[in-house]
Design a protein that fits this description.
Blueprint: H1 2-20, E1 31-35, H2 41-55, H3 61-71, E2 75-83, E3 86-93, E4 96-100, E5 104-107, E6 111-114, H4 120-123, E7 127-131, H5 136-139, H6 143-149, H7 154-157, E8 158-164, E9 167-172, E10 178-182, H8 189-205, E11 215-218, E12 226-229
Parallel strand pairs: 1-3, 4-7, 7-8, 10-11
Antiparallel strand pairs: 2-3, 4-5, 5-6, 8-9, 9-10, 11-12
Length: 230
Amino acid sequence: MKKGLLIFSLIVLMFFVCKQNSSPIFSVNAYRFIQTGFLSDDYFSSITTYATQLLDENPGTHAFITQLKKNFSVLDKIEVAYRPCGTYIMMHAYKPLCCINQDQILVLHSQLLPKTYFSDHILDRLTRVAVSENCLSKIVPLIPSLLSELPLDFKQTYDLELCNEHCLYMRNKQEKNFSIIAVATQKKLAPLLAQCVLVKKKLTERKDFNEKTNWVADIRFADYIIAYKA
C-alpha cells in the first residue's frame, strides 16, 4: 500500500514539475487551440500558426506564454491545461469596448487595435465612436468611463462624436436635426439623456421642432439644460 502511494505521489510530482518548468509533455499533434470568441478566424489562425512553430522549439510553458503575448498584444491571458487526451491552450483576448473611427477597436487599458483582429459578430455589438485624430491620444483614455455612464440602448439611438474632451456630440440617428452636447467626463448621462427626450417632446408640442430646424441640447451645465437652434 505504501509503495503504491509513493509511486502515485511521484507521478503527480513529475506532472507538476513538467507543467511549471520544462518543455511540453505531449507531442505538438496533441495540442488544441481554443479562444474566447472575440477574434476573427483569420487572425486566430495566424496566432495558432505562430504558436505551433513556437512549440516546435520545445519552450517551457512560461516562455511559450511570454513570447506569444509579446507578439500578439491582443492576448490578455493564456491558459495551458494538460490532459491525458492532449494539451489545451486557451487564449483570452482583451475584451473590445467600442469601435473608434471605423477601423480601430478600443480594448481595456486604453489600447487601440486594428478592427481586422476581431470577429464580425463582436463588431456588430459595439458602440461606434468618431474621435478627432488630432486629440485621439488625449481622449481615448476617457472613453471607458464615458461608456459606463451611457444607457445600454444608447447605440440604437445616438451616434457619438468626440471633438475634444470638452465637446462630445450625441446625434439622434432617427432625427438627425437634434443633437446633444456634453463633456467627455460627464456624469449621470443616462438621466440627462432622458431629460433631453422631454425637452425635444416640449419643442415638438410647441411646433418649434421640425425637419427644417436643427436643435441642440447642451447638458454641460450643473443644474440646467440649454436648448437652442443651431
